[in-house]
């Protein structure tokens, strides 16, 4: 999610309200990545596609997404 100032409140709410009620597991909010830099977003997306390529075909060398 882009904009740490905007999204930090949501992550705090998830951790402080939902997690104690066991509606989410510890660490679930870590699945949400909050960044303020476009380059970080590109890196996160590329890492995701690289991981998918490796999982589908461990021999594949095509999983080298980058900008």
Notes on the structure:
With 67 residues, the protein is mainly alpha-helical. The protein has two domains: 1-36, no CATH class; 37-67. The protein contains two helices and no strands. The chain is flat.
Output the structural class: mainly alpha
- Rounded radius of gyration (Å): 16 Å
Number of separate helices: 2
> Termini distance?
19 Å
The overall strand count is: 0
* Mean pLDDT level: 86
The amount of beta strand, in percent, is under 5%
Please give the share of residues in helix: 40-55%
> Structurally, how many domains make up the residues?
2
Question: What's the multimeric state?
Answer: single chain
The backbone outline, from C-alpha atoms, is flat
SSE topology string: HH
Largest sheet, in brief, is:
none
- Unreliable stretches covering 5 or more consecutive residues: none
Which secondary structure elements does this structure contain, and how are they paired or packed?
Blueprint: H1 4-18, H2 38-56
In short:
By secondary structure, this protein is mainly α. It has two helices and no strands. It folds into two domains: 1-36, no CATH class; 37-67.
Question: What features would you highlight for this structure?
Answer:
2 domains; 51% helix; mainly alpha; 67 residues; 2 helices
């Amino acid at each position: 999610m882009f904009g740490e100032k905007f999204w930090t409140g949501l992550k705090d709410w998830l951790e402080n309200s939902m997690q104690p009620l066991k509606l989410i597991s510890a660490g679930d909010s870590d699945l949400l990545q909050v960044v303020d830099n476009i380059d970080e977003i590109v890196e996160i997306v590329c890492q995701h596609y690289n991981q998918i390529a490796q999982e589908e075909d461990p021999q594949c060398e095509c999983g080298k997404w980058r900008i």
